[in-house]
UniProtKB/TrEMBL annotation, chain B:
<keyword id="KW-1003">Cell membrane</keyword>
<feature type="transmembrane region" description="Helical">
    <location>
        <begin position="272"/>
        <end position="294"/>
    </location>
</feature>
<feature type="domain" description="ABC transmembrane type-1">
    <location>
        <begin position="76"/>
        <end position="293"/>
    </location>
</feature>
<keyword id="KW-1133">Transmembrane helix</keyword>
<protein>
    <submittedName>
        <fullName>N,N'-diacetylchitobiose transport system permease protein</fullName>
    </submittedName>
</protein>
<keyword id="KW-0472">Membrane</keyword>
<dbReference type="GO" id="GO:0055085">
    <property type="term" value="P:transmembrane transport"/>
</dbReference>
<feature type="transmembrane region" description="Helical">
    <location>
        <begin position="80"/>
        <end position="100"/>
    </location>
</feature>
<dbReference type="InterPro" id="IPR035906">
    <property type="entry name" value="MetI-like_sf"/>
</dbReference>
<dbReference type="InterPro" id="IPR000515">
    <property type="entry name" value="MetI-like"/>
</dbReference>
<feature type="transmembrane region" description="Helical">
    <location>
        <begin position="112"/>
        <end position="134"/>
    </location>
</feature>
<keyword id="KW-0812">Transmembrane</keyword>
<keyword id="KW-0813">Transport</keyword>
<dbReference type="GO" id="GO:0005886">
    <property type="term" value="C:plasma membrane"/>
</dbReference>
<dbReference type="Pfam" id="PF00528">
    <property type="entry name" value="BPD_transp_1"/>
</dbReference>
<comment type="similarity">
    <text>Belongs to the binding-protein-dependent transport system permease family.</text>
</comment>
<feature type="transmembrane region" description="Helical">
    <location>
        <begin position="14"/>
        <end position="34"/>
    </location>
</feature>
Length: 288, 309
């Protein structure tokens, strides 16, 4: 990205704007601070009518409760497996589709493009009912993708992140000069080879943006995990792990905050790893 | 489109490239939409789902039941109102902060982006719990602070009890975790506007407001369109936050949105036909709102629509 320095270098209002910015940043970060703080507070300091925004006796008790009592590790692993599978598969599938829709000329291309556009607007949550029945019958034939199995979650999240991923990658693929393909062809590279060995690395920023959105989408899912994974509790994902501590009368807020913290870490790590490319990715998606 | 030798070769290659995604989308997206519409025409309860009773075709009866149901209209109105507040909120907050971010030095900007990245990373379910805890009746910091600074009536106030409080709280959480997308997108867009153009405009005597309106806005319109469409799509189908924060839609379903309503009718009430009808209504609503938005953008003669089709 080309960062163009703005002219306004010295303006009296800037210090005010900077103070406002820092205050807003603090407000935005506060729920996260509260989550982590509460996770480290000792039991007596969490459920009190007089909560303090600090603690002098940080403890890992809540984390210990979460990790030993609820099978949290298993749920965590399930969520991770589903999210990573969705990321990898959606990268591969959306990339191939984006290449075909951008660089190939064929009948029905415009129709397909419009369909993908519309597909992004379909409220997938509304499809919970037919998908529940679909997964039930799929499970009869291919058990790994049926109800109560992680495969069903992978399929659903994959299908839901594809339209946006394809749309986003199109811009990146289009931005690669056609001359490059012609040169590769002259050098005797096959189309497949050009696609994977030259084009794929060139659209990396787009792939990054796609993988972030796919990961968050799958990792956040509550509805489909709740609907599909009914009886095989060992195949549940993280949201259910937290529900254990959440009772109407006697909520273990320490454990809820500790598991929320643990659940946020992978997304945060993922974000930090790719954040430099993400901004360029989101901007590039529309430039092409 | 030219139908030559290459075109035919392209066609065959395109099929190979598109097939994996195509099969998946047909099976997991297109077919379920067809099924959704189909089920909505039937009396489809637990016996039918289990295959123990024959299906009875109802035609539009499920829809007639919805239209004559007072609760449906209430839920519909609440859904639209709630989504509108969330969309407007995340767009205004995100864009305003993007503009602010272009006017400050690196350190405050980095702090803002880090905070936004944190909010963005927080999974919906974790965010719901944290906000719920902050606003908890007995142990929440917000009640404590409010009563501490003199609003003694706020001690032990239940934020999730009445409809406005509950929806307000959920909307705040939704805006909190969805404005970062708008912020990052709009910031990238504003930074992509060439400084020379703005300089030239300033030399010609254009005010900041004038150059914002005539240069920056048209250039970021495609990104604004995407941010708006994404916000509409996300906020209309919020499920996790409403379900978790108002405990399945609140006492007597006071805090339902269409999504949760459909889920409750289908899986708790075991009326899949009615639930599907609600799903169809929701789909049509979302498609028409986004379609309408895209059309107005296109009519404005801007590139926004071009970026989308």
């Amino acid at each position: 990205m080309t960062n163009v320095r703005r002219r306004r270098v010295r303006r009296p209002g800037r210090l005010v704007a900077e103070i406002v910015t820092v205050v807003i940043a603090g407000l935005v970060a506060f729920p996260l601070y509260w989550m982590v703080l509460s996770a480290f507070k000792p039991a007596g300091e969490i459920q009190t009518a007089d909560p303090k925004p600090w603690t002098f006796a940080p403890t890992l008790d809540s984390f210990t409760r979460v990790l030993t009592v609820s099978g949290f590790g298993r749920y965590f692993l399930n969520s991770l497996v589903v999210a990573l599978a969705v990321v990898v598969l959606s990268l591969l599938l959306s990339f191939l589709s984006a290449v075909a829709l951008t660089r190939f000329r064929f009948r029905g291309r415009t129709v397909l493009l419009v369909m993908i556009l519309v597909a992004q607007m379909v409220p997938v949550e509304a499809l919970t009912i037919p998908l529940f029945f679909l997964m039930r019958s799929v499970g009869a034939a291919v058990p790994a993708f049926g109800l109560n199995e992680l495969g069903s979650l992978v399929l659903v999240h994959l299908a839901f992140s594809l339209p946006f991923a394809i749309w986003m990658l199109r811009g990146f693929v289009a931005a690669v000069p056609v001359e490059l393909e012609e040169a590769a062809k002259l050098d005797g590279a096959s189309r497949m080879r050009f696609t994977w060995q030259i084009l794929f690395p060139l659209v990396a920023p787009g792939l990054v943006a796609v993988s972030v959105l796919a990961f968050i989408h799958a990792w956040n899912d509550f509805l489909f995990a709740k609907t599909f994974i009914i009886s095989h509790t060992e195949n549940q994902t993280l949201p259910q792990a937290i529900l254990v501590f959440f009772k109407p009368e006697d909520t273990d807020w320490g454990a809820v905050m500790a598991s929320s913290t643990l659940m946020t870490i992978p997304v945060l790590v993922f974000f930090v790893l790719v954040q430099r490319r993400l901004v360029g990715g989101l901007a590039g998606a529309v430039k092409g | 489109m030219a139908v030559g030798k290459t075109a035919r070769g392209d066609g065959r290659a395109a099929v190979r490239y598109l097939l994996p995604a195509g099969i998946l989308l047909a099976a997991i997206l297109v077919y379920p939409i067809y099924q959704l519409v189909l089920i909505s025409f039937y009396d489809y309860g637990q016996p039918q789902a289990a295959g123990a009773a024959p299906l009875e075709f109802l035609g539009l009866d499920n829809y007639a039941a919805l239209v004559s149901d007072v609760q449906f209209w209430t839920v519909l109105a609440k859904t639209v109102g709630f989504a509108a507040v969330c969309v407007a909120g995340s767009l205004v907050v995100g864009t305003a902060l993007a503009v602010l971010a272009t006017r400050v030095r690196t350190v405050p900007r980095m702090l803002l982006f880090l905070a936004a990245l944190g909010a963005w990373s927080t999974p919906a379910i974790a965010g719901s719990y944290v906000w719920l805890f902050l606003f908890d009746t007995d142990f929440g910091l917000v009640n404590e602070v409010l009563s501490g600074i003199g609003f003694s009536g706020m001690a032990h106030h239940s934020w999730t009890f009445d409809t406005y409080g509950a929806f307000g709280l959920v909307a705040a959480e939704v805006i909190w975790c969805s404005f970062p997308f708008v912020l990052v997108t709009m910031y990238a867009g504003i930074r992509a506007v060439p400084g020379e153009v703005l300089e030239a405009a300033a030399l010609d005597g254009a005010s900041t407001w004038r150059s914002t309106r005539s240069i920056v806005l048209p250039m970021v319109r495609p990104l604004l369109t995407i941010a708006t469409i994404q916000s509409i799509i996300w906020d209309f189908k919020v499920f996790t936050q409403i379900y978790v924060m108002t405990n399945g839609g609140g006492v007597a379903g006071r805090n339902l949105v269409l999504n949760v309503y459909a889920y409750q009718q289908a899986f708790a009430g075991q009326d899949y036909g009615l639930g599907s009808a609600i799903g169809v209504v929701m789909t049509l609503l979302l498609l028409s709102i986004t379609g309408l938005y895209v059309r107005t953008q296109r009519r404005a003669g801007q590139e926004g629509a071009a970026a989308w089709g």
